[in-house]
Amino acid sequence: MIAPTPEQQIFMQDDVSTRLHHLAAHLSQIQYLWTQTSSQDLMMPLVKESRYFLEWTVPDMVRNPMPEGRGLKKPTSDQIKS
Length: 82
Fold this sequence. Notes:
Layout: H1 6-12, H2 16-36, H3 40-63, H4 77-81
Helix pairs in contact: 2-3
């Protein structure tokens, strides 16, 4: 197993909810840069770090699934038809 980087160790100290908040902030910045500046030089580091955020967060989400009722709800048949 590869030893975690110092950046990963700091990131992993946060709970999953906080990590997802960091990911959402990165994605918002990427979306802004894409639509406003199209600056690949500014976007790519955020894209790369966002990928790491996902890689570092998903295993904890799988190991510790959300309690029943806190996750996404299954759509009803009426919602699927619309």
